[in-house]
Design goal:
Layout lengths: L16 E6 L2 E6 L8 E8 L5 E8 L4 E4 L14 E7 L2 E7 L4 E6 L2 E6 L2 E2 L14
Antiparallel strand pairs: 1-2, 2-5, 3-4, 3-6, 6-7, 8-9, 9-10
Length: about 130
């Protein structure tokens, strides 16, 4: 996820927002363009009701964590999405995300991709092109 944050007075840029889910804990790092170590506030909202389901706070350019209790996990069959609001100084960026886990595991003694702990067969077309060197 990424977005520009331009505010009056702070003139900062959110260059990279990274978060991942592990056992209901979101690990997040919000980077500013000037390494100014500003306060950051995060809200996670349910994508349909817009109800705030989790909040977190930390300092820019440093990792911080917060809990999201029992999120509906994203999958192709149930694409649950959440809105995220990140505030730093007078700037505010909104985006959306889906919580899911990706991994690999053994299914009938064959290593397979797992989405949210379950085997998923990824099918579809693959478009592949190469350009001359």
């Amino acid at each position: 996820m990424s977005g520009d944050m331009h505010g009056t007075g702070t003139l900062c840029l959110l260059t990279f927002l990274r978060c991942w889910l592990r056992l209901e804990i979101v690990n997040m790092t919000v980077h500013s363009s000037d390494d100014s170590y500003q306060s950051v506030e995060v809200e996670v909202l349910n994508g349909t009701s817009q109800k705030v389901i989790a909040t977190g706070s930390g300092t820019s350019d440093q990792p911080f964590t917060f809990d999201v209790k029992n999120p509906n996990l994203w999958s192709p069959d149930t694409p649950a999405l959440y809105n995220i609001s990140v505030k730093m100084g007078s700037d505010n960026v909104t985006t959306y995300t889906g919580f899911r886990s990706l991994g690999k595991g053994s299914v009938n003694n064959i290593t397979r991709p797992l989405l949210n702990g379950e085997f998923i067969f990824a099918f579809g077309t693959l478009e592949y092109t190469t350009a001359p060197v």
